[in-house]
Amino acid sequence: MEGGLRRRFTSARVAVWLVIGVALLSIATGLVTTAAGSTGGGLFGGLVPLAIRQTTTYTGTIVGFLLLIAAMGLGRGFRAAWYACALLVPVTVVHGLLQSTPYSLPLVAFALVTVPVLFVVRGRFQRSMELSTAQIATAAAVVGAQLYGTIGAYALQDQFRNLETWFDAFYFTLLTASTVGYGSVQPTTTVARAFSMTVIVFGTGSFAAALGILFAPIVQNSFASALGKSSTSNIDLMEDHLLVLGYGHLLTESILDELDGSTEYVVVAEDTDLVDELRERKKTVVHGDPSDEDVLERVGIDRAKSVLVATEDDAADSLAVLTARQLNADVRIVAAATDRENVQKLRRAGADIVVSPALIGRMLVRAALDGDHVEELADQLAGEPSNKTLDDF
After folding, report:
1. pLDDT at 40
2. How far is CA 282 from its chain centroid?
């Protein structure tokens, strides 16, 4: 029990929620501290200069928003998101100390708790980020447009009002490309105005492309998850879950009805139409071969508590059982044998328990011929707990 509690509180899902909590606290601390203002010497009696305290108030809010973005990637199991969180969470601790206000103490304490949890579950986040050619090109276009505007504006600084530093040039480029406006930095000559027009065209074009190509898939995945059509929703964060390998119309349907709301599970099925149907019914399903090692690793065979195999194809079930046992020697595997002679084959493949509908039929026949306990056996098979177990017959 103690080990189970330890796993529960150091799971990947807990780590994600802790990071979200740190992010929200960082944003809230920055906003509250900004509203309250930095006065006096702070918690450390003036050891932290006022300018640093004021600066970290604003940058702490920015770090909070960055952490929220990283938490989204963490929830999808991305390794890069874990690195970002491992870097940003300690930064929030530093920010909280430098802000030197009573409001930052909860942030520091929460972040200090999150750091060790992140490192304990670091092995759970191994998914790589695979960007398409269009996404890479779009990101390069955004960076290129900002560099073009910044370098060009700095080179023409004499033709701009209030543009003296590289930061002023970047400030002008960002405001112009985002169509916010020029602000205090304004072009004063025809050449500078013409250059500003090109910054508007390149900057807004790259931002629009980024919204359409980089962020549209995130929105689409969110809608798919909300509609129950996402095939990998939360699978990366599942632990001690049940894997249902294959789909048999005789048994699997009732199994899924029994599982809904009681435990986390993933169904692996090959039939594309069946997969679409299950997704429409908001079942957690992955399309693939139940005996494929890559597919089983993707659905977390190494973290699964148990495996259930109950199709009408004993040969396919044996192969799925054998693969699951090879990938996880400790997982509990339960299988159903359509033909009674295949019970031992499934056991040799690695199943811990094999249930045969034919065996149940044989028991019913014996009960009927003997004339004893027929009603009790029927009640037992129907789920009546007060009667004798099947072993008693």
Report:
1. 57
2. 18
